[in-house]
Amino acid sequence: MRLFYEIPVHAPWSAHIMKRGIMHSLGFIYRRFLKKLLFCFNPESVHVSAIRFGERLGESRIARKTISGVTGIQYPELSQNVSGIHFSNPVGLAAGFDYEARLTRIAPCLGFGFETVGTITNMPCEGNDPPRLGRLVRSRSLMVNKGFRNPGIDCILEKFKNTEFSFPVGISIGQTNSAGIATIEQAQFDIVSAFEKAEQSQAPFSYYELNISCPNLRGNISFYDPEYFHSLLNAVCASNLTKPLWIKMPIDKSDHEIGSLLRVVSDHPVSAVIFGNLQKNKQDPSLVREEVMKFPKGNFSGKPTERRSNELIRLAYHFPGRTFAIIGCGGIFSAEDAYRKIRLGANLVELITGIVFDGPQLIGEINRGLAALLRRDGYASLGQAVGTLR
Ligand SMILES: Cc1cc2nc3c(=O)[nH]c(=O)nc-3n(C[C@H](O)[C@H](O)[C@H](O)COP(=O)(O)O)c2cc1C
User: Fold this and answer.
1) Are 116 and 243 within 8 A, CB to CB?
2) At 33, is the pLDDT very low, low, confident or very high (cuts 50, 70, 90)?
3) Dihedral sign from CA coordinates of 77, 78, 82, 88
4) Which of 78, 117, 291, 315 could form a disulfide with 101 if both were Cys (CB 3.0 to 4.6 A apart)?
5) 3-state secondary structure 180-207
6) How far is the CA of 179 from the centre of ligand 1 (A)?
7) Is 19 in contact with 70 (CB distance < 8 Å)?
């Protein structure tokens, strides 16, 4: 007799229904019971434990196979080539969840089509002072004040050296969060140094994300002035990158400011832009006031990022003479949320907060839901749905 995880995707409908039932039950258990328990503990401790648990599962062949059988189901209509890379599905793990590249074995089994590790910096960083994470349950959001707590690029490249990835893995690179970096020139030098190390390493990762939009670093250095951004991209691209470059964009800028940044992007060999990063504006109506007031520091993920992320995906998709692909990120909690971003113009999507609130099986649910939505709307492939919402 076959174990359920050995049932192939083209198996009869009864097998599909069984897998769907298991996924549904896992979702029910997470949302009803496990989340309530986890949310009783310190968010950063839960995050650290979840990463360790995920890493352990990833080391076990049986666990990988079992989990893949339920949540890692492939839907050929969701596959695409973006930035010259093949993606088996469009749902990625966004930067900020796996700073130490511990989940690269288990993430594809959960159904992720790709993962961004980091943000990683040239030098190791302790990050900001605690609290670095908080929960805003009614706002469906997380307070983030991590400040790039990461082991540094040398450590990650060393780890990547002898690794084979079964899906595309990218490295998010940002400025070292240190009091020693006080000027824009120092910040640029620091970022470019990390890119140069990554290029020299020949590690088998697939793409770069340049994070210019972290809102909680010391020193308040910013590359949002188009002149500085231009200079940074010139310097990064002068390293003759052998892998595609994506830019993680802010969402807390006006359409005009984003337009100026996109013009700079268009002048460089940038393959994709990601909209976008965290919500800085505590007055945003999607944030429940009593919840936000508990957090004097930090910025916000999840639902409060969704509206502006969607507006900027639309803006970028219609950017005159557009030369780049778009990756949608912010407030994805369901297949419908992901599909809206795709129909607004995103080729790929990324998320974090949705899995914290709805459980790791969410990725399988989103992939299954996306395949159903494509079928409902008469699209033979995901690529056909991109940018169809005016
Ligand atoms: C705990 C946490 C840490 C994050 N750290 C980073 C980071 O290091 N680099 C980055 O580019 N984005 C970071 N982000 C932002 C996410 O990548 C993403 O842009 C944002 O959370 C919106 O997506 P979501 O609503 O699906 O969480 C972080 C988000 C969270 C929740």
Assistant:
1) no
2) very high
3) negative
4) 117
5) CCCCHHHHHHHHHHHHHHHHHHCCCCCE
6) 23
7) yes
To test the pocket of ligand 1, the residue of 143, 171, 278, 306 to mutate (highest count of ligand atoms within 8 Å of its CB) is 278
What's the token pair of residue 75? 């839907």
Domain boundaries, the chain: 75-385
For ligand 1, atom 21, which residue shows the shortest CA distance? 301
Residue given tokens 């994805």 in the structure block: 332
Determine contact, residues 381/101, Cβ cutoff 8 Å: no
180 φ/ψ angles, rounded to the nearest 5 degrees: -70, -15
Q: Quick check: 335 and 364 in contact, CB under 8 A?
A: no
Is the CATH code 2.40.37.20 the one for domain 75-385?
Answer: no
251-307: pLDDT as tens digits: 999 999 999 999 999 999 999 999 999 999 999 999 999 999 999 989 999 999 999
User: 277 in ligand 1 pocket by Cβ < 6 Å?
Assistant: yes
Q: How many CB atoms lie within 10 A of CB 99?
A: 22
pTM: 0.93
Pocket test for ligand 1, best of 116, 277, 307 (most atoms within 8 A of CB): 277
